[in-house]
Each structure stands twice: as structure tokens, then as C-alpha cells.
Amino acid sequence: MSRQITLQREQIAILKAFGYSNLQVGLHFMKFAFVIVALGIGLGTAGGFWLGDAWSIFTTNSSGSRRSSSGRRWGRSSLHRW
User: Fold this and answer.
1) Tens-digit pLDDT profile for the chain (82 aa)?
2) Which residues contact 15 (CB under 8 A, 6 or more apart)?
3) What's the alpha-carbon Rg for the chain, to the nearest Å?
4) Would you tell me how many other CB atoms lie within 10 Å of the CB of residue 26?
5) What is the pTM of this model?
6) How many CB atoms lie within 10 A of CB 67?
7) How many domains does the chain have?
8) Which of 8, 27, 68, 79 is deepest in the core (most CB within 10 A)?
């Protein structure tokens, strides 16, 4: 965010010269940050659902039961050995 403020220092000065208050200029940058955060949340949520669905398909065979890498079914008997 500080990089954006540094890069837009001239635009901030122009806005101040036209009479915008510090609050109005600050709100502009807060809106900018909110848009970035909202996009990140939206894309992250969509990507998480997509990857979660892909992972569940990857780890579940066609009959719907989970199997270990050796091909054995996960269950009480296979975990009881440990």
C-alpha cells in the first residue's frame, strides 16, 4: 500500500490542490485496498472449493470408498495394527 501512495504522490497533491480532504484521499486508498482484498477472498474461496473437489475425486475411487496407497481399504482393521 505504501508503494501505491509513493507512486501516486503527484495525483494526491493534485487532489489536495482541488480541495479534497485528507479523509477523502484516505478513503480512496481504503476502497482500493478493499477491492484487492475482496478479489483475493473471492478467488481464494473459488480456488479452494475447486481444489477441494478435485482432491476428493482424486482420493476416492469409483465405488466411493477411500483406499490407502497399497490398495487396502482404510478401516478399523487396518488402523488397529498400529
Assistant:
1) 778 778 888 888 999 999 999 999 999 889 989 999 999 999 999 999 999 888 888 777 555 555 555 555 555 555 554 4
2) 24, 25, 28
3) 26
4) 13
5) 0.55
6) 14
7) 1
8) 8
